[in-house]
C-alpha cells in the first residue's frame, strides 16, 4: 500500500481542499493517479470541476477580507511555520512525489527543499512590501504610493515539479495578501494536497489556499479565467495552453504571469573548461529525465572540441541506471506517461532518419513503466525537429558550430527564450554572448542557475513575469497613488 511507505500516513490526501475542508466532487467521481515507473494505480482522487472551482473562488474571495487584517509580521510567521512543517516532512513529501511523478528519490528530496525555500523567502519578503512618498507639486498636497494585494489568484501548475511550481506561486501570493485557487496537474495531485495539509497545520486560515484536483482541465481553467472575482492567473506549462489562458483572461482584463515552453541552448566554446562543460551539460540535460523547462535542449559545441565533447558526454551518459525512483540503485526515473515516450521516440527517429548518429541510448526500455534510455545524438543540423522543438525527455542532441556569431544565431533561432547557458574562459566573450542571447536567464560556466533568490522567467514565447527574488511579489500587488490635499 502507498501509505505504508509514509511515516505520516495522514499526508496522503485524495479529496479536494476548499475553504479549509476536504471535499469530494459533487458527482462523487474520482480519477486514477499512476506511478509512471510501474504503470500501477496508486490512488483515486476526487475529480472536481468548474462548479467546485467556483465555490473555491468564492471562498478565496471571502477569506481575503480576514487575511488583510493580519499584520505583515503575522503573515510572515504563518508562512515560516509552513516552511518548517514542509522541511520536517521532507522524506514523506519526496516519497509521494517519486511515486506519482517518477523522479528518483534524491531529486524529489531536493525539490522539496527547493520548493520550501520559496516559502521561507516570501515569509521574509512579506515584511518588505514598501511604499513611497513622492515630491509634491504644491505646498498643500502630499503624494503617497502604497501597494495592495491584487486579489484572488488562479494558479495552474504542471506535473514535472509538483511542489516547487506550487510554492513559488502560493507563497508570494500569501505574502502579498492574496488568496489562491490552485489547479494541480492531474498526473501529480497528491503533492499539492499534502502541501495543503501542512499549510492547514501551520494555521494558514481557511479559504486562503484552495486545491481543485480534476481531469477537466479546460473547464476548470475557463472558470479561473472567466470568473470576475479572480484578478490574476498564473500558469506554468506549454506555450500553446498559455496562449489560450491569456486570451481567455483578456475578457476580464486579468493580470497574467506565464512560465511557458523552453528550448534552452548550451554553447560550448573551444576555450571552455571541458570537464565543467560536460558536467554542466549532463546535469542540465538529464535532471528529472530531461523533463524540465530549462533543460539543455540543444548542445552547441565549437568544432575544435566537438569530437572530444561528444566522447566524454557519451561516457558519462552510459553510467546512468534507469529504474523506479525509490530504488537506491536508480539514477534516472521514467517519463511521465506513454505520450511522453512516444513524443521523444518520434523526435529521435526524425533526427536519425535525416542523418544524425546515435552514440548511446535511443530506445524505449522494455518492461513496465514509461522509460526511455538516456540518449546522445551527434551530427545534427537545422533541418531536424530536434533543432526547433522542445524535447521533454533524456535526449542530448549535439550540434556543431564554427564561429561565435554562428553559435549565437543558432541559439536565438527559436520562438522560445527561457534559459540559455554558455561555457568559455574568455570574460569578454562571456559578456558579449550573454548580452546577445535572447533569453530571460543566462548561465555562464554554470547550469544550476535556479534558486528562490533569482528572478525566474523568460522572454519571447517563453512567457511573461518573474517568479522568486525580490521581484516575485510585483505580479501579486497593485500600486495605488494617494493624493492628500488641504495639508
Features:
487 residues; alpha/beta; Aldehyde Dehydrogenase, Chain A, domain 1; Aldehyde Dehydrogenase, Chain A, domain 2; 7-stranded mixed beta sheet; globular
How would you characterize the overall build of this protein?
Keywords: Oxidoreductase. Belongs to the aldehyde dehydrogenase family. By secondary structure, the protein is α/β, with parallel strands linked by helices. It is built from 13 helices and 20 strands. The chain has helices at residues 50-67, 72-88, 90-101, 105-125, 164-176, 189-202, 217-226, 239-250, 274-286, 306-317, 338-353, 404-412, 427-436; strands spanning 16-18, 21-23, 30-34, 41-46, 132-134, 142-149, 152-156, 180-183, 209-211, 230-236, 255-259, 264-268, 296-302, 357-360, 375-378, 395-401, 419-423, 441-444, 463-464, 477-484. The strands form 5 sheets. A 7-stranded mixed sheet has the order 14-15-16-13-12-17-18, sandwiched between helices. Helix 9 links the parallel strand 12 (264-268) and strand 13. The longest helix has 21 residues, at 105-125. The chain is globular.
Distance between the termini: 70 Å
Mean pLDDT: 97
Structural class: alpha/beta
Shape: globular
Write the layout of secondary structure elements.
Elements: E1 16-18, E2 21-23, E3 30-34, E4 41-46, H1 50-67, H2 72-88, H3 90-101, H4 105-125, E5 132-134, E6 142-149, E7 152-156, H5 164-176, E8 180-183, H6 189-202, E9 209-211, H7 217-226, E10 230-236, H8 239-250, E11 255-259, E12 264-268, H9 274-286, E13 296-302, H10 306-317, H11 338-353, E14 357-360, E15 375-378, E16 395-401, H12 404-412, E17 419-423, H13 427-436, E18 441-444, E19 463-464, E20 477-484
Parallel strand pairs: 7-8, 7-10, 8-9, 10-11, 12-13, 12-17, 13-16, 15-16, 17-18
Antiparallel strand pairs: 1-2, 3-4, 5-6, 6-20, 11-19, 14-15
Helix pairs in contact: 1-7, 2-4, 2-6, 3-4, 3-6, 4-5, 7-8, 9-10
Amino acid at each position: 500500500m502507498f501509505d505504508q511507505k509514509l511515516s505520516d500516513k495522514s499526508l496522503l490526501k485524495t479529496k479536494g481542499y476548499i475553504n479549509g475542508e476536504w471535499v469530494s466532487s459533487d458527482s462523487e467521481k474520482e480519477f486514477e493517479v499512476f506511478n509512471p515507473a510501474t504503470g500501477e494505480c496508486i490512488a483515486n482522487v476526487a475529480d472536481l470541476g468548474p462548479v467546485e472551482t467556483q465555490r473555491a473562488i468564492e471562498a478565496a474571495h471571502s477569506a481575503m477580507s480576514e487575511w488583510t487584517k493580519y499584520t505583515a509580521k503575522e503573515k510572515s510567521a504563518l508562512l515560516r511555520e509552513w516552511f518548517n512543517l514542509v522541511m520536517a516532512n521532507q522524506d514523506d513529501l519526496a516519497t509521494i512525489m517519486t511515486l506519482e511523478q517518477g523522479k528518483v528519490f534524491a531529486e524529489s528530496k531536493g525539490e522539496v527543499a527547493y520548493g520550501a525555500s520559496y516559502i521561507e523567502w516570501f515569509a521574509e519578503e512579506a515584511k518588505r512590501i514598501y511604499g513611497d512618498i513622492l515630491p509634491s507639486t504644491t505646498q498643500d498636497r502630499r503624494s503617497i504610493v502604497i501597494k495592495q494585494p491584487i486579489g484572488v489568484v488562479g494558479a495552474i501548475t504542471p506535473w514535472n515539479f509538483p511542489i516547487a511550481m506550487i510554492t513559488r506561486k502560493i507563497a508570494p501570493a500569501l505574502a502579498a495578501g492574496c488568496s489562491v485557487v490552485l489547479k494541480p496537474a492531474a498526473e501529480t495531485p497528491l503533492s499539492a494536497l499534502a502541501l495543503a495539509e501542512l499549510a492547514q497545520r501551520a494555521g494558514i486560515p481557511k479559504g486562503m489556499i484552495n486545491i481543485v484536483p480534476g481531469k477537466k482541465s479546460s473547464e476548470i481553467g475557463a472558470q479561473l479565467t472567466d470568473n470576475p472575482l479572480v484578478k490574476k492567473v498564473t500558469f506554468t506549462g506549454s506555450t500553446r495552453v498559455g496562449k489560450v489562458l491569456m486570451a481567455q483572461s483578456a475578457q476580464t482584463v486579468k493580470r497574467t504571469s506565464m512560465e511557458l515552453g523552453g528550448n534552452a541552448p548550451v554553447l560550448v566554446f573551444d576555450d571552455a573548461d571541458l570537464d565543467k562543460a560536460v558536467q554542466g551539460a549532463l546535469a542540465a540535460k538529464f535532471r528529472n529525465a530531461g523533463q524540465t523547462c530549462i533543460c539543455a535542449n540543444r548542445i552547441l559545441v565549437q568544432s575544435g572540441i566537438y569530437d572530444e565533447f561528444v566522447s566524454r558526454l557519451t561516457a558519462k551518459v552510459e553510467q546512468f541506471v534507469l529504474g523506479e525512483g525509490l530504488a537506491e540503485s536508480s539514477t534516472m526515473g521514467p517519463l511521465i506517461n506513454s505520450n511522453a515516450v512516444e513524443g521523444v521516440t518520434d523526435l529521435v527517429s526524425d533526427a536519425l532518419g535525416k542523418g544524425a548518429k546515435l552514440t548511446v541510448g535511443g530506445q524505449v526500455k522494455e518492461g513496465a513503466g514509461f522509460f526511455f534510455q538516456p540518449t546522445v545524438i551527434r551530427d545534427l543540423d537545422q533541418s531536424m525537429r530536434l533543432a526547433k522543438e522542445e524535447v521533454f525527455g533524456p535526449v542530448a542532441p549535439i550540434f556543431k558550430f564554427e564561429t561565435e556569431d554562428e553559435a549565437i544565431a543558432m541559439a536565438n533561432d527559436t520562438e522560445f527564450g527561457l534559459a540559455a547557458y554558455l561555457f568559455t574562459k574568455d570574460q569578454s566573450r562571456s559578456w558579449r554572448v550573454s548580452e546577445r542571447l535572447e533569453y530571460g536567464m543566462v548561465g555562464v560556466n554554470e547550469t544550476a542557475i535556479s534558486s528562490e533568490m533569482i528572478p525566474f522567467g523568460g522572454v519571447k514565447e517563453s512567457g511573461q513575469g518573474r517568479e522568486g527574488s525580490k521581484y516575485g511579489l510585483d505580479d501579486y500587488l497593485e500600486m495605488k497613488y494617494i493624493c492628500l490635499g488641504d495639508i
